[in-house]
Amino acid sequence: MPTTCAAPTVSMVPTVSTVPAAHFVPRHAPKKDPARENPRDLVERAFNSTHAALVRRLVLQSIASIESVVFQRAETAETRQLKRTAAAADHTVLLAIFLCLLNVDPGLKEAVMLSATTQNKHKLVGMLQHLRHTLVVDFFTDEGVSPASFNHACEDLYIVS
Prior knowledge:
Layout: H1 34-37, H2 42-47, H3 52-70, H4 77-88, H5 91-104, H6 106-115, H7 121-141, H8 147-160
């Protein structure tokens, strides 16, 4: 009779060794995910409403940077109002504020450029040039341009660039 059909004997039963649970516990603190702290392609993420918290954080940091550089660390009525608006705004208004601040804040512009992948840097540069010379000017001079249409024009420009 073949050994596979035979009654199991002690020598045929495989031995099972176990590993203590402590072996699987990390011995050091888990590393922070750099992609979550410094996300890639901030502009692409900003257009997605699921990243509203990231956009809000960038806007508030940008306002603080402008206060520091332009107003010698003093809070003005305008920056106070802008902070209140950014803290409570929906994604559409928040994105419009982000894009306008991107036009004037060199710190925000640098963060966005550093986050851009090599393939997208040319797109970003093209968008920033058109943003400065066309889109922001139209947004502030034509009352018929809503924040939503401004955002869509910026997103279309980024995609086409």
